[in-house]
Design goal:
8-stranded mixed beta sheet, 18 helices, Methane Monooxygenase Hydroxylase, Chain G, domain 1, Endonuclease, Chain A, polyphosphate kinase like
């Protein structure tokens, strides 16, 4: 028996948990539809990144016999993944049809061009002429002419025009122009009490004659298809180009990556299908028949029609230690502040940056940027600080997967305002979430400040991602943060931190020492436990250490949202390890580690998961939470999540994703219970 679950198969189990939410009738109906969009998006990204890499390995002769975790060769794993994805797609289709039926019962109808009444047809034709037509450019397909390049992430039609007794055919391709000005879904004029919505695709189907009016044909049809390309990003190793130049070229290469999946409407004529497969230079097992609509990740952006069918998110709470319209600096001078998003507002972080931008004592701001909102108030605060004469240095990670292009554009904005922008070596991603605000006059009592977080500086995702952020003026934290930023400016610089754990330098080693300490205490018959909450556990060495801890009577509890290679509760392997995964309305993104330490608990929040890339190939920061009050809060946070018997799945049941049974206990939904906890927390602090 292999000691570990396979990472890829474990990740696919996570995506099946997303599908479970889409099929859960207790989830608001329109949120179920959006979970289907999330599943579709996850699936495409998995194919682009993980499956594409395995396909490359399977085709590499030297890798064919190499065993991967789980005991599979690359080819065996590709075959298993194909079966899993196909089964998932069948389940997706079943749930999609079911959700549409339930929406129709609520008066929300997704109709196609054949179901339009005359008023709606007129509306669609006008919409096409006013909004769509100028964005549609047909590309004709000829056997002897090279196929124009088709970027992935697009929604495409293969158009077939037929004429004559022999059904002479002419083929063309056109891209459905989905963007913010031309959304995938269009709300139609409807009868009272009814809401009709149509895919943009079907408006184009209705108006095919308006596109191809100059040609003679007896019948015209459009068949949707999509491409999924290999998303690996290779950068030129030459020394004559800046990383930014290499990045821009690398993005172009990614757009032109080799197709790894061609999915088409199963009613597409065979000769048209074969022509496309041939021109895309695909193998037989890389094409797959599908349904009428593709790229259903756009379901995440289905229009909000009825609020009573959407997820109800409670109002964001004000942190009890922060008084509105008062100095956050002043508060941090007296106590550390721990924020729990989205229960408490990310606006506090924006306000912290804004105060740094205008404070007469603040002289400089250093910040790491990985993923940002599309209209980022963080960027606005930083540019304001630079314009106010502060020295602002932003360490922008150019290799934030699928956000690279946005980050390249953000660099232009920052540099235009006078912000110094530094981007690290492509061999070492900067993934930590760190801010250092330094003040001029330390002697007068003003302090410098550090923010360490588990999630991105992204106010959009902070509304739906569960994360932690710590603000402190602790001098050791300030010194450690200064050392990290000095390293980022000069990667030949070496440093030792007093309190922060920093990868790739000492985080792995220090975590190993903390685990070893629990084992030592357990052998002395002292209480010993390790509680870890994170997104993924895929590093075999760390997993092996946790197995070793469990075998030595350390009680290990794991809350892991995504991939986890540890097999909890296996005989003679992990009886003392339990694991759950929570899937609910907020995405569980926070990283938290609690070590018993003989009763004097050691508690860390971290930007890093227990993955090899996080521990060895990225700059990550874990921060100890020192205030006893905050340590107690984080322990309670973990306990509430651990008690979930509504949305928690048992990681010992990877194949079935079985829910943690409630038994005779009252039902507990952790995210609701946490909101109640922080509401009471706020009330108690105000008394």
């Amino acid at each position: 028996m292999d000691s570990f679950y396979n990472r890829e198969l474990s990740w696919l189990a996570f995506n099946r948990r997303v599908l479970q939410e889409a099929g859960d009738c207790s989830v608001p109906l329109m949120q179920r539809l959006r979970f289907l969009g999330i599943y579709s998006n996850n699936n495409d990204e998995f194919i682009k990144v993980r499956l594409a890499k395995l396909i490359r390995m399977a085709r590499n002769g030297k890798s064919k016999k190499t065993l991967l975790p789980g005991g599979y060769t690359a080819q065996e794993l590709v075959s298993l993944i194909d079966l899993d994805i196909s089964a998932g797609q069948r389940k997706f289709t079943e749930l999609y049809v079911r959700v549409l039926e339930e929406m129709a019962q609520e008066g929300i109808h997704v109709i196609d061009e054949t179901g339009l009444n005359e008023e709606q047809k007129l509306f669609c034709r006008k919409y096409f002429l006013d909004v769509v037509s100028r964005r549609v450019v047909p590309l004709f397909l000829y056997k002897t002419v090279r196929l124009p390049f088709l970027p992935d992430n697009g929604v495409y039609f293969a158009v077939c025009m037929e004429s004559g007794e022999g059904r002479k055919r002419r083929f063309a391709i056109l891209q459905v122009p989905v963007n913010s000005s031309c959304p995938r879904f269009v709300t139609l004029p409807s009868k009272k009490g009814r809401h009709d919505v149509i895919f943009l695709d079907d408006i184009i189907r209705l108006c095919l004659d308006d596109i191809f009016f100059m040609f003679t044909y007896e019948r015209i049809r459009a068949f949707m298809f999509k491409l999924v390309r290999d998303a690996s990003l290779s950068l030129d190793s030459g020394l004559d180009k800046s990383l930014l130049e290499k990045m821009e070229e690398g993005l172009e290469q990614r757009m032109r990556g080799k197709p790894v999946r061609f999915i088409y409407h199963r009613e597409m004529p065979d000769d048209l299908t074969q022509l496309l497969v041939s021109k895309l230079k695909l193998k037989d097992d890389e094409s797959e028949p599908g349904r009428r609509y593709h790229m259903l990740r756009d379901l995440m952006r289905f229009p909000v029609i009825r609020q009573d069918l959407e997820s109800k998110r409670a109002p964001t709470l004000v942190h009890p230690s922060i008084t509105p319209r008062s100095s956050i600096f002043h508060t941090i001078n007296h106590q550390d502040i721990l924020m729990a998003f989205p229960y408490q507002g990310f606006d506090h972080v924006i306000d912290f940056l804004r105060e740094a931008a205008i404070s007469p004592t603040a002289s400089s701001i250093h910040i790491t940027l990985y993923r940002l909102a599309s209209d980022s108030r963080v960027v606005t605060a930083l540019t304001s600080a630079a314009k106010n004469g502060k020295k602002v240095t932003a360490y922008v990670e150019l290799l934030a997967r699928f956000d690279e292009e946005r980050n390249v554009n953000i660099i232009d904005t920052l540099q235009g305002a006078g912000v110094e922008v530094i981007h690290a070596s492509p061999a070492l991603k900067v993934h930590c979430k760190l801010i250092l605000v330094q003040c001029r006059d330390q002697k007068s009592g003003s302090k410098s400040y550090v923010y360490v977080g588990t999630g991105n500086f992204n106010e959009d995702t902070a509304r739906i991602y569960s994360d932690f952020g710590l603000l402190t003026s602790d001098k050791a934290f300030v010194g450690d943060a200064r050392a990290v930023f000095t390293f980022l400016s000069n990667m030949h610089h070496r440093f030792v931190c007093k309190k922060l754990l920093v990868s790739p330098f000492d985080m792995r080693r220090q975590l190993g020492k903390l685990i070893a300490n629990e084992i030592s205490n357990a052998k002395k018959n002292k209480q010993a436990y390790i509680w870890i909450k994170c997104n993924s556990i895929t590093d075999a060495k760390m997993a092996g250490m946790l197995y070793h801890a469990g075998k030595n009577n350390v009680a290990v509890r794991l809350i892991v949202r995504g991939a986890c290679i540890i097999k909890p509760q296996f005989p003679r392997l992990s009886e003392n390890i339990r694991g759950i995964s929570i899937m609910d309305k907020y995405l569980e993104h926070a990283r938290l580690m609690i070590f018993c330490n003989g009763g004097d608990e050691t508690v860390y929040i971290s930007s890093a998961d227990l993955m090899t890339r996080n521990l060895d190939r990225r700059v990550e920061v874990a921060a100890p939470v020192q205030d006893k009050r905050l340590k107690k809060e984080l322990k309670r946070f973990f306990e509430i999540q651990w008690s979930d018997n509504t949305k928690a799945r048992d990681l010992a049941s990877l194949d079935t994703n079985s829910y943690v049974p409630a038994g005779n206990s009252a039902q507990i939904r952790a995210q609701d219970a946490l909101y109640a906890y922080y509401t009471n927390h706020e009330h108690e602090a105000g008394q």
